[in-house]
Specification:
Layout: H1 13-18, H2 27-32, E1 38-42, E2 47-49, E3 57-63, E4 65-74, E5 77-87, E6 91-92, H3 94-99, E7 106-109, E8 113-119, H4 120-129, H5 131-171
Antiparallel strand pairs: 1-8, 2-7, 3-6, 3-8, 4-5, 4-7
Helix pairs in contact: 4-5
């Protein structure tokens, strides 16, 4: 369930200008964008999206912050592990817009949070209205996904190295 902000939020174009999703767009382009967004407000601890559900929006954190949780299976059973914390200006939910697969993680607000939601249909309307702005935003989304993939690759490589080192010491304990 979406939670619209009670009062109409005036989105400051300078906020958009500082956000990587809108890098390379002119001031005139940024003036047109706020009408595409829907502002939603969440209290601390509220779930914004749920892993496995279908979605159709990406989110930009306007105020506050969120935790990204991933369902994992351990010896103790299933649980959710925090894999990231995001703050003002960060985006989430973009993968579903790109690959149209179910949500890959759960997102919960860790503070009172206002997000700007951009629906897939509004992104499509932007493509019809201004292909250059649409293409720039998609390229910026691809850059963000690539940046996150590189960070994940690095984390995975370090984790695998650590696991191998621990296994090596267990196999050959020091006397």
């Amino acid at each position: 369930m979406t939670k619209p902000v009670a009062a109409k939020l005036e989105i400051d174009p300078s906020f958009l200008k500082r956000n990587g999703l809108f890098a390379g767009l002119s001031g005139d382009d940024l003036q047109e964008l706020p009408v595409l967004f829907r502002a939603e407000e969440y209290q601390r601890g509220e779930r914004i999206i749920t892993e496995g559900e279908r979605g159709g929006s990406l989110y930009v954190i306007y105020h506050g912050g969120v935790d990204i949780l991933k369902q994992v299976i351990s010896r103790e059973g299933e649980c959710q592990e925090k894999i990231a914390s995001l703050h003002q200006g960060d985006t989430f939910g973009e993968m579903e817009l790109i690959d149209q697969q179910p949500r890959s993680a759960t997102v919960v607000s860790h503070a009172n949070t206002v997000v700007l939601a951009l629906d897939n249909i509004d992104l499509h309307k932007l493509n019809l209205r201004n292909t250059r702005v649409y293409a720039t935003m998609l390229l910026n989304l691809a850059r963000e996904v690539s940046r996150r993939l590189r960070a994940t690759d690095q984390y995975l490589a370090v984790s695998l190295f650590s696991i191998r080192e621990q296994s090596r010491f267990r196999l050959f304990p020091k006397d």
